[in-house]
Amino acid sequence: MKKNMRIKGGMIDRKRPLDFTFNGRKYAGFAGDTLASALLANDIHLVGRSFKYHRPRGIFTANSAEPNALITIGTGAHQNPNSLATTAELYNGMVCHSQNHLGSLGFDLLAFNDFLAPFLGAGFYYKTFMWPASFWEKFYEPMIRRAAGLGALSGLDDPSHYDKGHRHTDVLVIGGGVAGLRAGLLAGRAKLKVIIADEDFHFGGQLLTTQGEIDGKSYKEWLQTTLAELASMDNVTLMPRTTIFGTYDHGIYGALERRRDHLPPEAQPQGVRQIMWKIMAKSAILASGASERPIAFSDNDRPGIMLASASLAYAQRFGVATGKRITLMTNNDSGIDSAIALHAKGVNVDAVIDSRGRAESHHRLPKSVRLIPQGQIVGTSGRKRIKSITLQSGARIPTDCLAVAGGWSPNLQLTCHQRGRPIWDANLAAFLPPNQLPQGMLLAGAVRGDMSTQACLNSATQAATTAIKTLGKTPPKSATPTAENRPYTIKPLWSMKGGKNRQFVDLQNDVTAKDIAQAHQEGYSSVEHLKRYTTLGMATDQGRSSNLIGLALLAEASGKTIPETGTTMFRPPYTPVPIGAFAGRHRGRHFRPTRLTPSHRWAAGRGASFVEAGAWLRAEWYPHKHETHWRQSVDREVIATRAAVGVCDVSTLGKIDIQGRDATQFINFVYANAFAKLPVGKVRYGLMLRDDGFVMDDGTTARMSDTHYIMTTTTANAVSVFRHLEFCRQCLRPDLDVQLISTTDQYAQYAIAGPNARRLLTRIIDDSTAITNDAMPFMGCAEISICGGIPARLFRISFSGELAYELAVARNYGDALIRHLMELGKPDGITPYGVEALGVMRIEKGHPAGNELNGQTSAHHLGLGRMLASNKDYIGKAMASRHELTRTDGVRLVGLIPLDRPNSIGDSIGAGAHILPINSGNSAKDDAGWVSSVAYSPMLGSSIALAFVEAGDQRHGEEMRAYDPLRAQDIRVRLTSPHFFDPEGSRLHG
Amino acid sequence: MIINHPLLGPRDASEFTYLGDASLLMRPNSDDIDAYHDYIHLRDNPDGLHRELWFHEQGDRSWLVITRNTATHEITKVELARKT
Amino acid sequence: MHYSIWSILQQGFRGGRGWVRAWRAPVPQKSYDMIIVGGGGHGLATAYYLASQYGITNIAVLEKGWIGGGNVGRNTTIIRSNYLLPGNEGFYELSLKLWEGLEQDINFNAMVSQRGILNLFHSDNERDAAARRGNSMILHGADAELLDAAALRKLCPFLNFDNARFPLKGALLQKRGGTVRHDAVAWGYARGADRLGVDIIQNCEVTDFIIKNGCCNGVETTKGKILANKVGVAVAGSSGRVMAKAGLRLPIESHVLQAFVSEGLKPILPQVITYGAGHFYISQSDKGGLVFGGDIDGYNSYAQRGNLPVVEHVTEGGMALMPMIGKARLLRMWGGLMDMSMDGSPFIDRTPITGLYFNGGWCYGGFKATPASGWCFAHLLATDEAHAVARAYRLDRFKTGAVIDEKGAGAQANLH
Q: Which domains does chain C have, with CATH numbers?
């Protein structure tokens, strides 16, 4: 039977009814409802089960501090677990399910845990499940894991869109309650750029849920006027549904704006669900308010027990009575005010229990409300909804809703994200923000302990005035409005003794008062130990309603004061933020940008297969129609290149233009080999070391003129080498006249390799005499022009070991040039080759590449020790001479030829196999090296490999094993020189 | 963090690449391994003011020497490395 | 008191009144045989193994705050021994073996969960490096398997295979890798050491070392002077500021590493997964939270908190790899202090000061090392000889060039 708990008033739109389902049953609410208010309007309190004991739990708050009402909203890929019913805006067709039960919400089989509670106290799992040892993985842990968690992810890719952005503002006002709006209004009138953010979908904060007057106008009217003025100002941005979740360095705030969570999921694919903003604020006014907290007592977790402020919020804002017969328990004046306001709304407040004696505020209570001073609750009844309360006097009070007012705790989290420690205020019985606030932060309102509307308005005026003056503007003249200014007194009461049953402190994680006492008894007395041992405050609500009570109980147990006991660290986020929102659009294929080579479009048109090389996509091979295996394509490309001519896009190599009077000196300083005497028009191989003496990178550098060099780097190290060179230039040798710029993106560069390379080049070069063997011998370079006047650069360098050139043109010509070369090269037998064939040819030639230049190898390891110059200073010189980098029994680069037929992995020695002696055991002490690169050489008709082997340079001809247990392969290999093909280099000079 | 670039004004720290202690500016003059060992590997690693090198990689490619408090992240001075 | 199902039942019936302190709260003596500075995982493990393996029980562990409050109290809980270099692999394999018997040894359930760890690779070169590493692991007696893309997909169908920026070509799997309930490690070692007579003294900060004639005889603390024949320092991220009191400069920088946990969710992620292309690693705790992390923020810091760029970087990696986690909410993010060494590998060594020993430079790999670090540091303190698997962890290795640089990143702390 459905009940209707609606009362008059509220900010809901009764002309817009909305349907929703909860656990398959259909209910109705109104626009302006949260899911929680709509459920309560249907008299539904039981909405979930607790984490550990699966106790029935009801709606406890009306805000983001909710510990109990966690609901899964939506279905399929839109399923959104652990959503707070108390903040979720109702939309038409919302589908909701309760969580964490086996069976139904009403009959949860796992509630059996509740009977075992005496044995499941704090930390029980650290003390058992150890015998027998093998049972942990097989039995105990799977059992524990099955019980883990609250809601479930769908397991499907998240279909929602997220975005990220930056905002810059003079003043960021955090919280749009009375203090925030007042401060924002003043800053706005002072012509400052202002953002006011509030997590709620309506601005107003407590003004929405309580009654009163400001300057003689009702809260509602004041809100309307103020918001209208704010909306009229171009310099003010109002951001509802926006949570400022973290305070970061130098005035940066993280914000989550929920743009479409209040719409049905069908509406979501069309727009951005949420935006993560980084707000750079010169000044921030924190007006985040305060949260009410409960008081612990025996059986204090039944559905129908909620905070007094929540009960009032549902009545005032949503027009819902949370019970027909409400009892209110308080230890402070705010609870009395709530009772009065509830009564004024026509809600039946049956009794008010005040743990204090007589208080001034009691006089304001309506006569019809029974007052029980010095009352304490020792028990409650009602499994799925509270039925009655038992007082310490033994009196039973029948009730269907118990509203608890335990005092207010300022929402000071954002003041402590930079490790600030809050300060205890005994009058308020609460922690206040630290004196040392994050840079640029000011406080306004309840967050600084202002407990009346008037005090909030006053501190807001003050904060705004400070901010305005600090930012160099004049505060507008405006009298601070007048409002209610009643005193607030509280007599702290954290838990009511005398009951027989458990007092739940952390409702979600089921941490009880007894757990806290036991943790202390076992020595977990530091507040951080307490939190970790009992899980107090570690649930989704981060203990917003429970931490202080837990602290107080710990202080009580340890005989310390609350400030002596201290608090745990506050860390972002203020409320949980979806992972998707942090990632924004950077997901899937858009995780990182993709760089395309100049010939990409042409290569794609030829059906090239592409491979990721860092940020680049490069063609790995160009399959022909009849080829069924990549090896066929690669072998063909190698053979064709070595037989005729091949062309390969090498634009991804880093290119650095180096100019200046001292360019020579600079290059000679950054390379380990001699560079001082490189003639103009020549290119030289350069070996670059890190300052710790290990090899950083290699490449070629061409001298174009006395003062102009062009350096190339490997693709992988293009960015880090450039950074390193700038470091050398600006930090180590600012005395040198030299300038650098990266031109990697400005040039398209093609390797043209093979016996027919020169013949092909003569077809496009404007002056073919420039490339005769005499005019441009091996390692020559020149500025040339091609195709009738297009400027180009030509380098006669060779990675393949063939007669080869690299031809560079402005990048925009890249596509045309490759097409032109392919057309003109037909008579020369031109074949495009990809990075795989490039790799095969460099392994055939024994050139080191990424797998060899892995940052762990020295020049000596690579067999390049003799290149190190002795007669100059260069980066890495001193450290390169260290014993471990030079010792003659250290590893050396060698070639490997298999003596057995490899069995398992494509005719190849396995890259990553280790090199062991023939008759050794198979353990680490036998390990003599490893295979770094492998290829099948179509020229040799064999699998070949490069490897690093201890004293390998002295062991050419020796037989060893390539031991590869990962791939069940163990084959004999012969160590050779790494120069497998044309070791004399005769082809280079052709 | 925000770095107040001496030429470009306030920039988000994510535009920069960090290297380390600004003592890396003081490269030894000799080939002495001990001197290099100290220069390359040993650090004061202070809990407080730290002069350190940042590279404006996604900007003007200036190397900066920044004085920053490692306990609070407060930046008190930003200089061009080539002018220090 | 021995922990078991019987003690639970007994105390359950007695209302828990009989539970005793897991460790005492002793007043410091005037002198000890040895002092361990640092009541984190490594310091407590060292004390425990000194007592249990070498019979040295007249020991104090001095902790400036609460034990286990450093990185053992906030990390991503991963254990593994999938290292490449000989200087490391033997050590981490010893550690994994110690994890495997830890709970029965210390009578404390730290929930060592060998659910398997997958290191994904994305290119042929990365596969080659993974193979070299896996073979090295096997040579050192560890377990390793190389999965191709198809096998990986069978194991983890939820990964983003079809729309990946960096293709998933396979993974190196170590089945014995997994996770451990991190706080329990500190508590378990503390309780174990305490039961053998070790004094664990909290809220006791070392303010100075007592050094005469190049010899360390004890420490000054906020609770007074405490003498000892040997002082072992295991203070991780505080290494720089503590060893500076002894006048030592270290090849270490302190950096901040952030880590993250989501709200509790029903089990969805069986293994530990590390995503090299995105600097992202993730597992799901027994309580249901997705625990994940990535790179360090990259700048020297003692602030124990980080900034947004790394949060974004890490979550982007997560969404690139497993877009199913988009609606999981990040519940807490925290920053820890990492003692980043100049080659990414640690030190367990004597110092130039007689009687003063140093354990540090764990970078962000210290948690998995806890048992072996304690074991080997205890060995060094007890015998004055480096343990066989920790011989490479010398403070002077940069002078000879015998670096242990797993990443090949060189002498730049924030790249390791």
A: 19-77+183-251+343-415 (3.50.50.60), 107-179+254-337 (3.30.9.10)
Lowest-pLDDT range, A18-22, A270-274, C159-163?
A270-274
A414 in the same domain as A327: no
The rounded distance, in Å, linking the Cα atoms of A381 and A392 is 14
B47 to C241: CB separation less than 8 angstroms, yes or no: yes
* Residue A133: inside a domain: yes
CATH (domain of A808): 3.30.1360.120
Q: Which residues of A touch C286 (CB under 8 A)?
A: 141, 144-145, 148
DSSP assignment letter at A686: E
Query: How far does A173 lie from chain B, in Å, by closest CA?
Result: 20
Query: pLDDT (tens digit, 9 = 90+) per residue, A932-973?
Result: 999 999 999 999 999 999 999 999 999 999 999 999 999 999
Determine, yes or no, domain membership for A363.
yes
- Across A285-299, average pLDDT: 98
Same domain, yes or no: A931 and A914: yes
Range of the domain at A357: 294-406
User: For residue A880, is it within any domain?
Assistant: no
Task: Give B13→chain C minimum CA distance, Å.
Answer: 9
0.90 surpassed by complex ipTM = yes
Q: In order along chain C (416 residues), what is the average pLDDT of each group of 10 residues?
A: 92 92 97 98 98 98 96 94 96 98 95 96 95 98 98 96 95 98 97 98 98 97 98 97 97 97 96 92 95 96 95 96 97 95 98 98 95 98 98 97 97 96
Closest to A924 (Cβ–Cβ): which among C90, C132, C330? C90
Question: Distance, in angstroms, between B2 CA and closest chain A CA?
Answer: 6
Phi-psi region of C141 (alpha: psi -120 to 50; beta: other; left: phi over 0): left
Q: How many domains, chain A?
A: 7
* A694 contacts in chain C (CB < 8 Å): 405, 408, 410
- Could you say which of C134, C278, C288 has the minimum Cβ distance to residue A148? C288
pLDDT of A1 strictly over 60: no
Same domain, A236 and A146: no
Give whole-number Cα distances, A848 to A668, A809, A843, in Å. Answer: 22, 27, 8
Question: Phi, psi at residue A153, to the nearest 5°?
Answer: -70, 155
Segment A704-717 shows an average pLDDT of 97
User: Contact B40/A879, CB-based, under 8 Å?
Assistant: yes
Q: What is the pTM of this model?
A: 0.96
Flag if B73 and C301 touch (Cβ within 8 Å): yes
Residue in B2, B32, B82 nearest the CB of A730: B82
Q: Which chains reach chain C with 3 or more Cβ–Cβ distances below 8 angstroms?
A: A, B
Cβ-defined contact of C184 to A923 (cutoff 8 Å): no
In whole angstroms, give the CA distance from residue A302 to residue A557.
Answer: 26
User: Angle formed by the axes of helices C41-54 and C366-383, to 10°?
Assistant: 40
> Would you call B1 an interface residue with chain A, using a CB distance cutoff of 8 Å?
yes
C316 contacts A591? CB cut-off 8 A = yes
Asked if A609 and A834 count as a contact pair (C-beta separation under 8 A), the reply is: yes
A834 and A731 in a common domain = yes
Tell me if chain A has a CB within 8 Å of the CB of B44: no
Residue type, position A53, single letter: Y
Q: Are A798 and A780 in contact (CB under 8 A)?
A: no
Domain annotation for chain B: domains and CATH numbers: 2-83 (3.30.2270.10)
- CATH number for the domain that contains residue A399: 3.50.50.60
CB neighbours (10 Å) of residue A584?
21
**Do A527 and A425 have their domain in common?**
no
The whole-angstrom separation of Cα C61 and Cα A872 is 53
Give the residue from A70, A120, A124, A126 with the most C CB atoms within 10 Å of its CB, the best one to mutate: A126
**For chain A, which chains pass the contact test of at least 3 CB pairs under 8 Å?**
B, C
E strands within C301-373?
329-341, 347-350, 356-360
Based on the fold, state whether residues A829 and A688 are members of the same structural domain. Answer: yes
What the block records as the tokens of C12 is 């359950």
